[in-house]
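During the reporting period the student researcher (J.K.) took over the structure-prediction task from the postdoctoral fellow and processed the backlog of single-chain submissions. One of the processed entries is reproduced below for the supervisory committee.
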Amino acid sequence: MGSFLSFISKKRAILPIETSFSLPSPLPSWPSGGGFAKGSISLGDELEVCQVSTFSKVWATHEGGQDDLGATFFNPSPLPSGYSMLGCYAQPNNQPLFGWVLVGRDTANGCGGDGGSGALAMPVDYTLVWSSESSSVKQDGHGYFWLPTPPEGYKAVGVVVTAAPEKPSVDQVRCVRADLTEESENDAAIWNSDKDGFSVNGVRPSTRGIQALGVLVGTFIAQASNSPKLSSLACLKNTSSNFTSCMPNLSQIEAIFQAYSPWVYLHPDEPFFPSSVSWFFDNGALLYQKGNQNPTKISSDGSNLPQGGSNDGNYWIDLPVDGAQKEKVKKGDLSTAKVYLHIKPMLGATFTDVAVWIFYPFNGAARAKVEFINVSLGRIGEHVGDWEHVTLRISNFNGELWRVYFSEHSSGRWVDASQVEFEEGNKPVTYASLHGHALYAKEGLVLQGNSKLGIGIRNDTKKGSKMDTGERFEVAAAEYLGSAIPGEPAWLDYEREWGPKISYNIADELKKVERFLPKRIRSALEKLISSLPDEVLGEEGPTGPKGKNNWNMDEN
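J.K. obtained the following structure tokens:
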């Protein structure tokens, strides 16, 4: 019998979630000062929260969801003394265990629980959202999903999962007073069982930005299609009068970036490299004004650029007029390249986003893949002045890197730290696409278009020249610090176009390349090109960092 069990054990695949992820290197000791990385954060006069990233397993399913591997549901455990659970944690099984959930403490009335006016209160009952008893899904025992019924004036911010059909104790979880919560919305899918009409999604604040107060709890919402419509969960709210008291100071920002500064790999065939903004200006970049035939040479710090306003089309930047100098500037200068950091509070200032902006004097022409044929698109996609970025999301509870945002073409995406490639400690690796410079988490080919049909704009990434962003960087903006940092560089407030509107005719450019293609391929290529926005095609000059939506808002 023992040998049989041993055989079964060997045959069972070890799921990624059965291994806990930790960053390659231990966290450094952060410089002292303020409330950053102190372990807990006060969300006002009555509610204090901390992150718990250790768990006890409650129930697991082994099919459905991401990669059809199921998901696992946990209680945060152990709880810090004086803190109460606000909801369970869940994660897909196709990734190593890496997450957290907030637990809360009522600083005015202890843990809370009498349903009075404290920050926290026990639920008065539970509603069974779904049970796996009648499900044929592969599972460990049975799982039961309970939505807390909050007392009047309170809201639930998490779901309770049990492995038994009895209602959980009302003492197991806490609801939060309504004025300490914000509206939430569904986040990424965690698990679903289509045959059972049941789904589990993360929950995030509906409004997210540098001034938004909503706090991510780390819990999830469970929804069953055959149940009566249930109220959505709330998220927490940072009501502290000193909203950014837990954000890093300048010395802590510098330490954070030295710890997590990304590596940027450029493609081996890349002809257009990044540079510093001052190098671009010093080497002959020109400012044009509508109706004025005489461009102005831009000063090294950009102080003679028009400041603020709107992108009204009256100003734009272009390359030097001299042919040789123009070609030099287009190629950039990796030896002077530096990155520009925008430090911003996010998710109710419980996280710090470090947006790492990279400038390229020139963006190269696009390349397309149409079935088995690769096509160079002439001048299509070329434009002057290319801004790309990657964003690091840092926990203000402990300074740990949680996620990385890669500004891929079409739409970027967040990648959990457990899925990021690292080199030399905790430095994330990013890959800049050939010619277009969009940033990706992995090397290879990403098609912008219809990848199933093998039709799209090529985004090729591969390890070539490497840029260490920690070698030369500048904190360009950190509005919450006020006068604690030097003023923003003058060029940052230039919110017009960093390149001219391109005047070439796309139809003519297509004709040049289509004459070598089979007729059926031509129509597919034309349809692809017509679906792309002007900025991707290179027709419109791009704006600088402050002209992007993510300057004040979340990445997506």
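The committee noted the following: The longest helix spans residues 519-530.
J.K. will present the remaining backlog at the next meeting.
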